[in-house]
Every structure is written in structure tokens, then in C-alpha cells.
Amino acid sequence: MRHLVQIALIAGYATACGISPASRLTSTGWGDSVEILPIPPKPKPAPTVLGHTKLADLNPDPKIVEVSLTARAAKIALSPNRMVDMLTYNDQFPGPLLEANVGDRVIVHFKNELDEPTTIHWHGLRISDQMDGNPRIQNPVPAGGTFDYDFVVPEAGSFWYHPHLNTNEQIERGLYGPLIVRGPDEPYYAFERFFVIDDIVLEGNTIPDDFLVNFPEGVHGRYGDIFLVNGTESTAGQSDTVPRGRFERWRLVNTANARTMQLSIKGALFRVIGTDGGLLETPYLTNKLLLPVGRRFDLEVLYDTSGQAVLESTDELETSSKIPLYTINVTDEVDTEPGPIWTVAPFPARTPNKTATLVFDFKTDANGNLVWMVNGKAHNHDPVFTFRQGDTVALTLRNAAPMTPHPFHLHGQFFTVTSGGGGALEPGLKDTVRLLPSGTVEVLAYMDNPGTWMAHCHILEHSELGMMASIRVEP
Ligand code: C2O
Ligand code: CU
Known about the structure:
Elements: H1 2-16, H2 21-28, E1 48-50, E2 64-79, E3 82-89, E4 98-101, E5 105-112, E6 121-123, E7 146-152, E8 157-162, H3 167-170, E9 177-182, E10 191-200, H4 217-220, E11 226-229, E12 232-233, E13 239-244, E14 247-254, E15 261-266, E16 269-275, E17 278-284, E18 289-291, E19 296-302, E20 307-315, E21 323-334, E22 354-364, E23 370-374, E24 380-388, E25 391-399, E26 406-410, E27 414-419, E28 432-435, E29 440-447, E30 451-457, H5 460-464, E31 468-474
Helix pairs in contact: 1-2
The structure holds CU-O-CU linkage (C2O) and copper (II) ion.
């Protein structure tokens, strides 16, 4: 009888996804008798995020998340046979999961045990600029120093944290971690996965320290030859086992220095339910996920058939064959828990009251070194624009370079993409968008968070070589 419920649910999902229910039903092999049974209400436990250790909350107040993070060198097993000297948060790679609810005050007691200064940036969070990890606002935390980050998390979504100093090296060496903010009425999934996807250059068991060479790193950014999923080499064959019929929420983030991940899932149904700025009013189907550095996607995954569901990658040029990143073995045992009913409020439409243009360009300096620029200047930190809080800015982003894309990232605000981007327009609030070589993207940027904000390319070699600007939003 449990099977009957599940068939009806899968048929409903298939219809919502535009797949003929008939074909879905016959492929279940459960016959054609469909009958909906009442599903008894159950109290819902907090979602389990598979694959990460959650940071311990030291504060009993339910509205305060108080945690400790220490950056320091540690040896990490990237695979059973490979121990690598890396930089870590709390001796973990990736850093531990920071989880909070909308409206919570988050206090992070940070200690820098690296031998160089650093800061932590909470990528995507619209918090105060004083707590954003911008090394021009907060004094970088010196080697041996401490800093208490203290902010209120305004909205739900999938985010990540990483340093904002010497980023191409500190992030490549392992400093990053996942961050989840939960909303009060979010559609509920009992099981979630956060896939933190990276690529890394290794020579044997060592990360070679030729950072910021002029070519090819300076031009294209540092591409790794080994894919890492949650800190483990893809070749290590990570896997898990789930019952057929289970719905899960997957969160994906690309933490590489430069590579755009091109992801797909075979052996399961999935749809995009969220992006940088949280859940979408209307989820959509796709078969490819183009994930530029820094960007997130949230997916609903339904293991509709037994066998193997595999998260796979190619590079953005699809020059490589598919690389399996993570395998889910789907058993014949059946999970009858339905997927959530989708109710997510729309983001209110806004009309632009200002326009601005950012041009991403390069030159070679007197020594023949490559310099990356925003609006004609490297490290363009006197605000290139000043807006008022509440402004809606029609922002044109133009890539003047023919040889590389630039994943543009704006701190402290969200935007929606209105044209360009090299494909079908993706809905939802973003903080990161990819500009194709010589391409132009138009966005509507919602300047709702006052402060001074970095606006830069998230190819870390490009931003360190100057492709970094600031904008100002006056309260
Ligand atoms: Cu992911 Cu300026 O940051
Ligand atoms: Cu770039």
C-alpha cells in the first residue's frame, strides 16, 4: 500500500516538471493502480545536512548563534592515500558548517593562527559592511590576532565564508566553509546535502606555491586538475545510500579559484529551487547547471528510480568527459515522505531609478605584467558610484576582455539578471553573475544595504591583480 502513495506523488512531481505522468508511472514498474492514502501529520525534526560537521553553538539563547573559528595550518586527507598541508578553519576542510535562522545574531570568535593576516567574508550575507571582511574597512586580523564578527542574518539561503586577503592563495589552500540560513516558512526537506565543489592543483602531495604567475594563472585564473567535493578528491568515489522516492534539498557552491563548474545529475529527477538570494517563487527544470565561482544553486532532487544517481561535472567548454563527483546508491526500499508543497513569496518587481556601467578590462604594465581593472583602474577603491539606500540601479556589466569570462560579485546587495549572461535568463536574486568573454550583462541591482561594498571578479587571480572596485550606498 505504501507504494501506491509514492506512485501518486511521483506522478504529481512529473506533471509539475512537464514529464508525462503515464511514462513516469510505467517506468516505476509498480502497475497502474493509483490510490492516494492520507498522510498522517508528523512533527518535523530539524533537517539533517549530510556531509558536514556543524559548528557548535556555545550560546543557550535560541536567537544567538555563538561559535569559534580558528584559521590554522593542518594536514588534511584529500583521499585515503593523500595527506596534504593545507590551511583550515578548526582543522577541517572545508571549514565546519555555520547554521543559523533568519533574524539570529551570529557571533564568531575568530582566531588567526596563520602566519599571515586574514579576514573572513560571509559571501552573500547582506550584513553590516563593518563585519563583511573587507580589509579596507576592518583592520586585517594579524597573525596570532583575534576578531569577533557579530552580525544579524537577514535572509534565508545557501552561503559560504572565506578570507578576503591574499584570496587566491588562502582559498586555494583550503580556507572556506558552507553557511546556511534557514527561514521560518521554507519548504521542508528532512535531508539536505551541501556540495562544496572546488578544483585544486597538486604536485604529488603538495600544493605548489607558484601563485600569481603571469601566465596562465594571471590570464585565466588558477585551474586545478583535481576536483574536490566537500574536501575529498572526486576519484575517491564518495557515495551514500538512500531509499527510492526520497526528496532531498541539495545546495551547491563553487569555491574554485577560477573554473566555472558545469554540473549535471544523472539517474534522478531534479529542479532548481533556489539561487544566491534564496528560494525561487517558481522552481524550474534544467539539465545543466552552470555554476560560476562563488555562485550557489539549491535543487530539489527526487530519487525516482533505483540504481545510481550521480552528480557529474565537465568544464565550461565541455572539453573533458564527464567526471563523477558524488554517487548516490538508490535502493528498492521506498520512502513515502512527500516533497513539500511549494509556497514561496515572489520578489516584488522594481523599476530602476538610476543607471551605471562597470567595465572589466586589462592592460600590461611597464614590466610586462598583466593588470586587471574595473572602469579603467586597478584596485579602484574610491567608490566608483554612490547610490542611496533603496535605489534600484540598472547596472551594465561589460567584459572588455576577449580571452576570459569574469564572474562578477557584488558584496552586500542582490540583483536580478535582465539580459545577457550567455543563455536563458536564470530567475532569482543573485550576488554573482558570469560575464562571457567580450560579453555584456544587464542587471537590476537592489541597493538596499547601506555601506561601502566591494564589487569584483571572483576569479581570485583577477581580483588580486586589480579587478576590484568599491561602491557606496548612503543610508
Ligand atoms: Cu566570495 Cu568578495 O567574495
Ligand atoms: Cu575575472
